Amino acid sequence: MTQDATSFGDSTLRGYLDELAAKVPAPGGGAVAALHAAQGAALVAMVARYTTRAKDADNRPVIDRIIAAADAARERSLALADADAAAFTGVGNAYKLPKETETEQAARAEAITAALLQAARVPAAVVAEADEIVSLATELLPIGNPNVVTDIGAAADCARSAAGSSQLNIAINVASLDGTAGAEFAPVLKQIEEVIARADALHNDVVAAITR
User: Which of 32, 89, 103, 177 has its CA 20 to 30 A from that of 206?
Assistant: First the structure.
């Protein structure tokens, strides 16, 4: 995030991209994954808000629920971008701890494990948001305003990217963990495969809807 911003939500787009392109530890792929999820949630909310016409009255309770859920997912995803940057910084700080004595080495090893676990748990949370976004987008497709149906497909693509990028960030952190510390992420890695498959299917459904 930019130096004069307290979070990604306070950064300008250009400032964020400048920081992303810079030779600095964070932001990186983890923050990008979270922001993919935030964009996907925003797209779902936008399509839902375009589905509040008089002819959509029968579906209004569902639409209102989708709007609320998508807005909440967007805020959570945006917060996860900040959390990812903080977690990455925490890993770097842990590796910088002194290791001259056995006591220092033990404390450093414990701090590194804790930091790596946190750095993997943040993208795991992003995967949960991506899963939610695909579910909302899938529910919205048959009742959403057909004039903006392509944005449902774009939301699915954002969620897919969020899940795929999170997979990489989980894997690199788990690979650095000792023993069975990374076992908790096995269900998440399976969930990622499912999210990607569902997002691809939804993308194809949108293509079919606009080409038939």
Answer: 32
